[in-house]
Every structure is written in structure tokens, then in C-alpha cells.
Write a structure and sequence with these properties.
5 strands, Alpha-D-Glucose-1,6-Bisphosphate, Chain A, domain 4, alpha+beta, elongated
């Protein structure tokens, strides 16, 4: 999957501080993306939405120790999710962020936006990912926990 011809508009950004070194957080983030976000979605929702790729995301850009940009599309939206790691304010900590961008297509896209963005579901899903990466970063090797 290629990147977009034009960037979709910014939706939001969420940030957590992880009390672990950047290299550790990067390892866990990269493993989490590959095992949880790039896998094929199961169930009727993926069929209804027509996600491309089937799992919902593909890696568009990866800059080791810095950021992973994921892109995807379906019948109602084109989207990009950018995870970034940076040194935190405290020694040995890491700032982990997720920035979302999306274009919603036509009247069905407007309804989809209302269901996903305005209800707060998107915020819950994104912050859950960040909290999981933070928890896994503190609990041992990637994949443990």
C-alpha cells in the first residue's frame, strides 16, 4: 500500500510517558504493531468496512527508534496513524505519542466519523494502544505480558 497523494487532515494526538528507555519502548512498540495492528481483522466489521489492507493498517514509513507511520483505507475513510518515540523529560523515560489523520468520504463517511470520532471510541482505542505499549514496556521482553 502506498502513502496518500495528499495527507488526510489531522484528527488528534495522544501522549503517554513511559518510565523506560527509548530503545525498550521502541522494541515493544514495533512488536505490538506487527502482532496486533498489522494482522488481518476477523469478523463481519472488516467485511462491512472493506478494509485495505485486511488488517486495517500497513506500514508506510518506519524510522527505527523514532516513528512508525501506518496507513489504511476502507469504504468510508482514508487514514494515517503515526506512532513516535522521543526521549522523555525525566532521565531514562520515553515520550510515546500517537497522531491520527483521516479523511471521511461522502455522506456515509460523515456518519462513520460521528460513530467513531464524536462518540469518543477513537480516543478510547488509541489511548488503549498507548497504555498497552507502556504496560508491556515495563513487564519484560516484547511479547511477554
Amino acid at each position: 500500500m502506498s502513502t496518500f497523494d495528499t495527507d488526510p487532515p489531522f484528527v488528534d494526538e495522544h501522549v503517554v510517558t513511559v518510565p523506560e528507555p527509548r530503545e525498550r519502548v521502541w522494541q515493544v512498540l514495533e512488536a505490538f504493531v506487527r502482532t496486533s495492528l498489522l494482522t488481518a481483522a476477523k469478523g463481519p466489521l472488516a467485511l462491512i468496512l472493506g478494509t485495505d489492507p485486511p488488517g486495517g493498517f500497513a506500514v508506510a514509513v518506519e524510522v527505527p527508534q523514532e516513528r512508525i507511520e501506518l496507513v489504511g483505507r476502507h469504504r468510508f475513510s482514508r487514514y494515517r496513524l503515526v506512532f513516535a518515540v522521543a526521549d522523555g523529560d525525566e532521565a531514562g523515560s520515553t515520550r510515546l505519542s500517537a497522531r491520527s489523520y483521516a479523511t471521511f468520504l461522502g455522506p456515509h463517511g460523515a456518519v462513520y466519523r460521528a460513530l467513531v470520532i464524536r462518540t469518543g471510541f477513537h480516543v478510547l482505542a488509541t489511548t488503549r494502544i498507548l497504555r498497552q505499549v507502556r504496560r508491556l514496556s515495563r513487564s519484560g521482553p516484547p511479547g511477554a505480558g
